[in-house]
Amino acid sequence: MEPYLSDLRPSIAAIIAARRAQLGVRLSSAALIICIFQLQTGLSWALAWGVTYFTVQLVEYFVFRKVDETRAMARSAERVFFALTMANSAAFTSFGLLLAASGSWGVMCAGILWSGTIAHVTINSGGSRQTLQCALLPPVLAFFALPGFILRDGGNLTDCITAVAAGLFSGFGTVAMWNVYQKLLKSATRAREFGRQAQFDSETGLPNRAALNQRTDELASTASGVVVVAAIGIDRFSHLRGAIGHAPMVELIAQLAERLSSAFNGIPVMRLSSGHLGLAFVARDMAEAFHLAATLQGAVTRPLQLRDTHVDVSVTIGLSEAADALQHAADLAILDRALIAVEQAREARRHIASFDAKLYGNPGATLSLMSEMSRAFDNGQMTIAYQPKYDLRSGAIVGAEALARWDHPERGALRPDLFVEMAEETGHIGELTEWVLRRAVRDQHRLRAAGFNLSIAVNWSGHLLDDVGFTDTALEIARGAAGKLCLEVTETAIIGNAGLARQTLERLRAAGLTISIDDYGSGLSSMAYLKNIPADELKIDKAFVLNMATDPVDAVLVRAAVSLAHSLGLQVVAEGVEQQAALDLLGEMGCDLAQGYLIARPIPLQDLVAYLGDRATDPASAAV
Hints:
This protein is an alpha/beta fold. It folds into three domains: 2-196; 209-360, Reverse transcriptase/Diguanylate cyclase domain (Alpha-Beta Plaits), CATH 3.30.70.270; 364-618, TIM Barrel (Alpha-Beta Barrel), CATH 3.20.20. The chain has an eight-stranded mixed beta barrel, surrounded by five helices. β6 (315-321), α14 (334-347) and β7 (352-354) form a beta-alpha-beta unit. The termini are far apart. Residues 1-8 and 325-330 have low confidence and may be disordered.
C-alpha cells in the first residue's frame, strides 16, 4: 500500500490545492443549503449540520494550508486527508438522512443530494482512487437506509428495490465514468508532456531546435524588422568535454545559455546540438544584428564558474536572416544557414559572420558530380596530366606526378580540389584513385616503350589508409607496373591515423612501392612522426618554396627540412619551384628533386613524351 500511496502524492497535493482554492465556494453553498432545507428539517437540525460541515472544512483548510503541488506530503498527512475526505462525504450523507427522515419529499431530496455528492467527488478526486473510494463510501452505504424510509411512508418492496438499484447504478456508473475520465486525462497529460519534451533538450532542460524554429516562425509573422537567427558554436567543444567530462559539460552549457540570455534581455537561448546554442531575435538590419551578436561575444569574456573550477569559454557566432533570398540554397532553413555561417566564420578566423551564399556554393550540383564521375572515366572527360620531377644533381627528368583532370561538358574544367574533396567526403575516392592508378601503370608502359623510364607518383588519400580491400586492389595493380610507383600521402592524413597508417604503408613499401610524405610543413609536422613512418621521400610544401628566394625565413625552413629529411634517410622533393633563384638555392642546400612550373606544368601523356624527347635530342633544352 505504501508505494502506491507514495506514487499518488502529487495527485493528492493537487486535489488539496484545488479544494483550498474552493473553500469560499463550499462554505457559501453550505450556507445556502441551510437556508433552503431548514424549512424541511427544522432550524436546529439544519444549524447542527452546518456547524459540523463548517468544522470539517476549516479543519481541512488549516491542516493542509501549507501543502502545494511541489512539496512532498508525509504519509501521515495522506491518511489524515483520506479521513477528512470521508468526513466531508459523511457530513453531506448525514444531512441527506435528516431530509429522508422528514418525509417522502425528503427521501427524494436525499437521493438527489447523494447523487450530486457522488458526481462532485468524482470530478474532484483527481487521479487518486483512494480519494474516490473514501468519498463514495458514505452516500453509497446510505442508499441501503432508504428502504426503511420508503416503507415508513407507505411504499412497497418494489419501490425499495428500485431505489436501492438506482443508488447502486448511480454509484457504479459514476465509478465507470471516473475510469474513462482518468484515461482521457492521462492521454491528454501524456500528449502535453510529449509536446513539451519535443521542444526541450533532455540533458540541459533548454528549449531545443524545434522551439527555435517555432519562435522564428512567430517572429516572422509579427515582427516589423529583420528576423535573425544566431547559431552560437562553442569553440574547442570536443576538447572541453574531454577535459571536464560529459556531465560537467552539460552543466557548463546550461550556465552559458543562462549568461547569454541575460546579456540579451532575457531572450531564450536554445540548444541546437551538442556543441551549438542558438537564439532568434529581431533587428533593424544586419548591421544591428552584428552589433547585438557582439554583445553575446562580450558575455563570455569572463570565465564560467563550474563547481570549484573556472572555465574559459569562447564562441563563434553565425548569423542568418529569414529574408535571405537564396535561389540555389532555397532548401536550406534559416537555422541551417546560421550553422553553416559558424563554420564559415571559423574558416575565415572570425568571431562573427553572416551566411555567405557564394562561399557556400551549390552542394546539390557538386554532389551530382559524383554520379557523373564514373561516366567521366569512360567518355574521356577525365584525363591524367603529368608534372615532371627534375633531378637537381643529374639534370634529368626522373619521375612525374599523375594528376587527375576533369573537363566537364557543362561546367568546364573543374578544380581538382573540388572533385577530389567531394570524392573523399562521399566515399568515391577509392574509385577515383583506382582509375588514376590503372591509367598511371598503363601510361608508364607507354613511356617505357618510348624509351623513358620514369617513376610515376600517385596521390593516396588518407581516407584509404584503413581500407584493406582497396590496398589489396592497389597492390594487384602495382604488380603490373613497368617501373617504380610512388604513393604520395599527406602528413596530416598520416598523423591522423598514425598506427593504421604505419601498417598500411609498411605493407605497400614491402611490395616495392615508394612512399612519399606530401605537403610537408603544411600540417602538424613532427619529427617523432617522421621517425616512425615508413617513408622514402619527403615533399616540402610549395608554400615554403615559392618565395624562398626572397624570404629568408622560408629559406631557413626549407634548409632545415632538407637537412632533417636527409638525416632520416629520406629523399627530398621541393614542389612549387617557379623561379631559377629558388632552384639554385635548392641545389646549394642539397635538395634531391624539384617540381614546379619552372620545370614544366602538368601536361598530357603525349606532351610529356614530346617534352622528354626534346630534352634528349637538344642538350640546351635540358638546362632549366
